[in-house]
Amino acid sequence: MKPETWAPHVTVAALVERDGRFLVVEEHTPAGLRLNQPAGHLEAGETLAEAVVRETLEETAHPFTPDALVGVYMTHFARADSSGTTYLRFTFCGSAGAPENRALDPDIVRAVWMSADELRACPERHRTPLVMRCIDDYLAGRRFPLDFVHTHSVGPPR
């Protein structure tokens, strides 16, 4: 029997600030209704930038244009059986256009704009501690150019 290969789940998240408020989503999770940045999994064939644009549109209906990478974050959620899941999250900041008239992902209840103070006041509602950590890093001025993450595409085998 072939042993299972371990791999982290690669995710992306978008930070959009407008007039001192951040675009977040209220979503159904196994732990109940939680707040998160628009975020989701990298899909096969996508670049990280393409993934964050897609996820933001699917979860908020706002077209997203990434300007910079805020940070790369790793989180491990342990389970009682000593297994767990590791997430590697790439958080981008940028701007969002006007919302399009489209349905949101099924788990998303709504997109909402909240200030950092409003978010800081309700940590029990955050999907993970990364919600506030990413905002704090953004507010501290952390920015890396988009080309900090290089995507190397390999063509078909010769």
From TrEMBL:
The keyword NAD does not apply. Its cofactor is Mg(2+). Its EC number is 3.6.1.-. It is an enzyme of class 3 (hydrolase). Residues 7-136 form the Nudix hydrolase domain. Keywords: Hydrolase, Magnesium. GO terms for molecular function: nucleoside diphosphate phosphatase activity; ribonucleoside triphosphate phosphatase activity; thiamine diphosphate phosphatase activity. The keyword Cell division does not apply. SUPFAM superfamilies: Nudix. Monomer. Belongs to the Nudix hydrolase family. NudJ subfamily. PANTHER family: NUDIX HYDROLASE 23 (PTHR43222), PHOSPHATASE NUDJ (PTHR43222:SF11). This is Phosphatase NudJ. It comes from Paraburkholderia rhizosphaerae. The lineage of its organism: Bacteria, Pseudomonadati, Pseudomonadota, Betaproteobacteria, Burkholderiales. The gene is nudJ.
